[in-house]
Amino acid sequence: MPRPILATIHxxxxxxxxxxxxxxxxxxxxxxxxxxxxxxxxxxxxxxxxRSADGFALLDLEExxxxxxxxxxGPILLLEGVFETxxxxxxxxxxxxxxxxxxxxIDMLAAHKTNLPHRVFLKLNSGMNRLGFTxxxxxxAWARLxxxxxxxxxxxxxxxxxxxxxxxxxxxxxxxxxxxxxxxxERTLSNSAATLRHMTDHAATDSDPQDSLVxxxxxxxxLLYGSSPDHPQHTSADWGLLxxxxxxxxxxxxxxxxxxxxxxxxSNFVADKPMTIGVVACGYADGYPRVCPTGTPILVxxxxxxxxxxxxxxxxxxxxxxxxxxxLSVGFGTEVTLWGRASNxxxxxxxxxxxxxxxxxxxxxxxxxxxxxxxxQD
Length: 378
What we know:
Blueprint (H helix, E strand, L loop, with lengths): L5 E5 H14 L4 E5 L1 H5 L3 H8 L4 E4 L2 H9 L6 E3 L8 H8 L2 E4 L2 H9 L6 E6 L11 H12 L4 E7 L12 H10 L7 E2 L3 H6 L1 H7 L11 E2 L26 E13 L4 E2 L5 E2 L4 E6 L16 E4 L2 E6 L7 E4 L1 H5 L9 E7 L5 E2 L1 H7 L4 H6 L7 E4 L1
Parallel strand pairs: 1-19, 2-3, 2-9, 3-4, 4-5, 5-6, 6-7, 7-8
Antiparallel strand pairs: 1-10, 10-13, 10-17, 11-12, 13-16, 14-15, 14-17, 15-16, 17-18
Helix pairs in contact: 1-3, 4-5
């Protein structure tokens, strides 16, 4: 028999979260962002839950080929564009739209021989300072693209650096709206945080056109996968999101320990009273963070308890003492939910586990190890 660890991808939850994104931006079309193998969920496993999206946005050609192989005939956007000239041949063959964020990508298009002009998304660096043309150079880049026979329609895009925080997005929307004023083409601005935190507010209160967050396309990523883009300020439940990945396992051993006994490598947990611990078939080689400290929340038989001691490569320990005192029958073979939805419908948000580890739900999803078997379930 295989180890009892299992990742379950919830297709209905993906559908629900996609609908939640649309609810926040009812006048916009929606990219389902499936980069990083659909945030660790697996593109093939997530596809059915996201297929009602208007398009798929992703990172590279291999991911685009996988989406086309699933039968998708709608728009696909390469979020970082192409990396070398020959990539444009596959863009033509697969009918891919792609981002243009630097002069070198314009040079590639100018040198490209094609009978099929490309749909491109010209990216403005409005303050994120990763990719994109500066405000001073954006319109000249647009003019150069517009003069190329290899280019069909030019859409306009930017990316927010602080949509999840106190600084917000006004400083960037003003730059974007000023620089792109009177330029034709569809706009795409809003990531998950901007979609949930700012789309409704801007639609209701904008009086200055420079602050407008009008988007023809939104680009929800992490919200589709049931994680809050601004945790801990808001939880996934606050935003009405459902967990799309459950990482579950079972207890494979129990130990009764006395006061003063330690648990795990380094003996960094020492019992202050007699305890019963459970050993769970999950460790950092499965993608569970090694840095999760004692006290990280976990569900055993759908009941909250805590981890104990250091996470090992293949195992971790949990505190069974309070559950046993409550009269629950827990022990070898009992279900453990590392994050997601337990069989009794109790939910442990991936954000809570990530917060204990000092990171984000994004990282936990993407770190799910290949050795963990996965299944799709409604």
